[in-house]
Amino acid sequence: MAGLAFAALILVGGCAPNPQPPNVLLITLDTTRPDYLSCYGGTNRTPGFDALARSGVRFESALATSAVTPVSHASILTGLNPYEHGLRVLSADSGFRLPPSSTTLAGYLKSAGYATGAVHSAFPVSGYFGFNQDFDRFESFDGNMDLLPGAQKTTWNLDALQRRSDATTALALEVIDDLRSDGRPFFLWVHYWDPHDPTLLPPPEWLTGITSGAGGGAESAQYEEIYAAEVRYMDRQFQGLTDALEKSGLRETTLIALTADHGQGLSDGFKRHGWAAHRMTYQEQIHVPLMFAGPGVPISQTHSALASTVDIVPTLLDLVGIPDLHPSKLELAGRSLRPLMEGNELPPASAYADQVNGYDFNASMTGPRPDAAFLFTICDGTWKLIWRPHMPEASELFNLLADPLETVNVIRSERQVFLRLMEDLAQRRPWVLSPFQSDGTQADDGVGEALQALGYAGGDGAEGTGLVWQWTCPEHPDFLLPDPLPSAAAHAHGADGCERLLVPISDWSALTQDE
Q1: Closest Cα to residue 21, out of 357, 225, 244, 325?
Q2: Beta-carbon neighbour count of residue 305 at 10 Å?
Q3: Following CA atoms 457, 462, 468, 471 in sequence, which dihedral angle do they give, to the nearest 10 degrees?
Q4: Per DSSP, what are the bridge partners of residue 154?
Q5: 342 phi and psi angles, rounded to 5 deg
Q6: What pTM did the predictor assign?
């Protein structure tokens, strides 16, 4: 049945074929902050991305669902939040792979007769994480997460398992020719990696004027200069891709969506929040660019309405225009942004993000930043709550309109806003309350056991982490329920309307005591 929807499209109306649906090109930029693109007001010149923005629609307030690559990409590809698609961590005994039961954008379009392909630039979006499903051609990297001698986290071969954006663009153009060979419309996902790290640098002429010296971490001036140069170089390679589409006559028939999986703290994030990398949910890490261009997309529009990367799949499917794939017929967390493009308003909605660093074997940051072990975040466009159930007293509420840099925590003074956003979180039930157990889908490599022996996340149940979860509600913090939550007790507690607010905690006292 793979080609039935496409066949139906071309046969409607007797013998006169309808136009072929547009090609679809999804571009994901790894670790790319919007303010390092000049179309988002940055001083870093990015003419390729700027040209895309001028030719289509740019969203100013888009949030990723996670600040770690595979988790965020799973949401971009499925239109689902992490607690719905099930890929929650980079490394664990399970929970790091997109389930085979998931349907991705590639799967939806393949069912409508599209040829599907993907060209990636690094291991974290490889078949190892389940991203190869639904693709006719998948240019991946074969590798594993390994525990190196003396290390206290798993890692992968950063030197061998990534490619620079010039090589990615060259391969993408080859794959486009391959996908087009039988005349079908194509879907291609292209992933660029360059700004993630300085392992593969741009050619020397792109690094002219960068501060010399020993360098430093992501909070250093030299790192930031290299980061900006890598964004500029990636922009040039993206421009090469779109120029090639223009020359081949494909640009006018290709629908393009561009976003990033997450950002990076850098020096300003370090100054404000004490963290220069990613894996947290402050704006410098989850605010991402989001642009659409091509058939059916207006030209030179900018929207300030809150968007999420889960909106990409429904928006593209809506724009493609295949009736069987209209987002209203699918079970997606996101919503189509097409009405906004056409001048209509959308009902208010919130955007979700999380980090389950405490149960991720790759997240060694939980040592220096224990407050980042479990982050559950909800944003309504004005207010943003970062809830830390293991350290409730460290949770934060920000008014993004008055405080876009997230420097003033108003969780105590804005209690009604806090309760409203907490209710949103509680109804989603996104919690991960114990380490990921082996699901039998991978070989037993002993990595989990080795890390557990070092005192890392793991063990049998939450007790293996030193956490004992309980349930309560912000309205009645003295009423504690054990985990797992007995349904009868929850029902009894909900008799006064509080069941909607039940959340797990490990210590509530510091947040609820009088000031």
Answers
A1: 325
A2: 15
A3: 120
A4: 147
A5: -95, 10
A6: 0.92
DSSP classification of residue 20: P
Work out the average pLDDT over 215-234: 91
Contacts of 329 (CB under 8 A, 6+ apart): none
Total domain count, the chain? 1
Q: What is the pLDDT of residues 182-202, one digit of tens each?
A: 999 999 999 999 999 999 999
d(CA 119, CA 173): 10
Angle, alpha carbons 478-480-482 (nearest 5°): 165
Quick check: 21 and 9 in contact, CB under 8 A? Answer: yes
The one-letter amino acid code at 350 reads S
- Whole-number Å distance between alpha carbons of 399 and 106: 37
CATH number of the domain that 97 lies in? 3.40.720.10
pLDDT computed for residue 451 by the predictor: 56
Structure tokens at 438: 């082996």
Q: Is residue 123 part of a domain?
A: yes
List the end-to-end C-alpha distance of the chain, in Å, as a whole number: 64
**Distant-in-sequence, close-in-space partners of 420: CB < 8 Å, separation ≥ 6:** none
* 454 in a structural domain: no
User: What is the span of the domain harbouring residue 34?
Assistant: 4-143+173-342
Q: Which of 82-86, 328-332, 447-451, 511-515 bottoms out in mean pLDDT, i.e. has the lowest?
A: 511-515
Q: Is residue 134, in this structure, part of any structural domain at all?
A: yes
- To 10 degrees, what angle do helices 69-78 and 312-320 make? 30
In a domain, 259, yes or no: yes
